[in-house]
Structures are given as structure tokens and as C-alpha cells.
Write a structure and sequence with these properties.
Layout: E1 15-18, E2 21-24, H1 33-36, E3 40-43, E4 50-51, H2 54-63, E5 72-77, E6 80-86, H3 91-102, E7 117-127, E8 133-144, E9 151-153, E10 155-158, H4 167-181, E11 187-188, H5 194-219, H6 230-237, H7 241-251, E12 254-259, E13 264-269, H8 274-281, H9 283-286
Parallel strand pairs: 1-3, 9-11
Antiparallel strand pairs: 1-2, 3-4, 5-6, 6-7, 7-8, 8-10, 12-13
Helix pairs in contact: 4-5, 5-7, 5-8
Bound molecules: acetyl coenzyme *A and zinc ion.
Amino acid sequence: SPRQSDTAKVNSIECIHIRDHEIETWYTTPYPEEYNRNKILYVCEYCLKYMNSRYIYHRHQKKCTKVRPPGNEIYRDGRISLWEVDGRESVIYCQNLCLLAKLFLNSKTLYYDVEPFIFYILTEREDINDGSSRFHLVGYFSKEKLNSSDYNLSCILTLPVYQRKGYGQFLMDFSYLLSRREFKWGTPEKPLSDLGLISYRSFWKVKCAQVLVQLKELCDVADSILNVSLEDLSNISGMTPTDVVLGLEQLEVFVQAQDISSKHLNYGIRIDSWQRIESIANEWTRKGYQVVNASKL
Ligand code: ACO
Ligand code: ZN
């Protein structure tokens, strides 16, 4: 865990019990005083109600009727589902989600003013013998409903037990898919956390590689010259030009050259090895990660 000496850590919640997991917390969160005194906080993974004791939790598990997040299932591919939850309709759920997320976020985030946001909840389906299904919480991202900026994601979390399995990339990819469907360019809200930045850098790199490979296949470039602008790459990916440049830099294909005559800097893309780019473009599939299938939205 990235938790360092968190001197501001005033509460004593050391871990949360959710589903069958005990997850060590990284940062503090403003749960009501009487909940913040516990070492272990019990959280129902379906309604996100938080509880003081194991006893109350077990009693709740018996009577809680929820087996999935609220809202509409807008994507399903195999065992993976995404649920769109309106912060105005499911206020308590979204507030509880934000409080939970804050345990793994250093920055100040919102907890109570959830109405202006939509939450996209990622779940893994478990089919029970009796024919019913349960949808286990894996992670989420939130998005501001109306915003004048390019932000397409305000906060993202993968529960630590599910991290490093590609779910972060999945959620990021999904946020850009939504932007493309709105015919907009998107970027995550700043500042990014350390893990957020590492993950986005990795995402932008792979995404740019995928777009370049896609273009190459479309154009069938025999002479290895691809005539493409930054705007083209943004339109295809849904990423802002700034983020495209960051991705191209990570890919080490972005080159600058001083034009002596005009004293202007020229920028271009130079690909020395398509094999390398193709290998990066296939990284998620190679690692067995879930990839977004746009036709399932
Ligand atoms: N150490 C090194 N590299 C990492 C790490 C890590 N701990 N975590 C992610 N990466 C990099 C790796 O390149 C990784 O790919 P790889 O595992 O194949 O090498 C890549 O990022 C993506 O990893 P994912 O498995 O797709 O991402 P994950 O599901 O772990 O989620 C996330 C990433 C959401 C940032 C997660 O770490 C998290 O929830 N952190 C706590 C909350 C947070 O900081 N959120 C971002 C705040 S900023 C914002 O919301 C706008
Ligand atoms: Zn519940």
C-alpha cells in the first residue's frame, strides 16, 4: 500500500471488511465519529451501508435484499457489468461509495454533494446454484453530469484486492468510450494521484499504440508514411490532444525538430518498429485483461 506516515490519520479504521475480504485502509475518511472509532469497519458490498460490528453486519447480510448496485446495467460482457448510477437518485449509495473511496485516496474528494455526478460501477457476476446471480463490487469511476471543461472522469477506484488486474484500464477505456459517444474529447480531472498518474500513463501509451495500429491497417501504408494530425488521433481515441501527446511520448514515437527557416518547432510521429508498437497495442489482451467491447454498451 502507498500509505506512508499519515500523520493526519486521526481515525483508527485499519481495515474494512467487505464481502470476504479484509482490506487495509490507506487514508482517513470522514465517517461519522462513532464509526471512525473502530479498527474494522464492516461494509455491505451491495448497498454500501457501513456498520460497527461483525454481529450487526451478519444480521444485515441476512436481511439486505440487494444483490447488485442500484441504477441501470449499461454494459455486460461475460461476467463483467457496468452500472450507471445517478447521484441524485441514489444519494446514500453514492455518498457511501465516496466515503469508501476516500480510504484509498489522499486528496480531498467530495462525499456528500453527489447529485451533480454519475457513478459507473464495475461488478463481477457470480452465478449461484439456485439460478440467481450476485454482482460483486470491483471498482468505479464518477463523472460530472454537466461540465464546461473536458473532464470525462472525476474519480476512479479499483478496490485494492482487485488492483493490477487491468480493471483500472478497463474503467479508463470506458470513460473515453462515453466521450466518443458524446463526440467530445475527454481527460481525467486533475490533480491525479500517484497511482492515477502511473495508470493513466500506461493507459495513454497502450491506447495510442492501438490507434496507430488501427490507422496503419486502415491506410495500408506501403511507404510507411501515415498522414495524420493530432486532432485525428483525438477524434479516434476520445483523448484530448494533450493526452495524446503524453501517450505518444510514452510510446517514444513523438519527435520534435526545429525548423531553421521559420524558427518554429515541428512535431511529428516517427515509428522505428511497427512490431514494437503492435506488441504494446496487444498488451491488455496478452495479459488476459478484460477489454472494453464498444458494441456491448
Ligand atoms: N505500481 C506500479 N504500476 C502500477 C501500479 C502500482 N501499484 N498500479 C497500476 N500501475 C500501472 C501498471 O502499469 C499497470 O499495468 P500492469 O499491472 O499490467 O503493469 C497499469 O498501471 C494499470 O493497472 P490496472 O490493473 O489497470 O489498474 P488498477 O485496477 O490497479 O487501478 C487505480 C488503478 C484505479 C489508479 C488504482 O490504483 C486505485 O484505485 N488507486 C487508489 C485510488 C486512486 O489513486 N485513484 C486515482 C485518483 S486520480 C483520479 O481519480 C482522477
Ligand atoms: Zn446491504
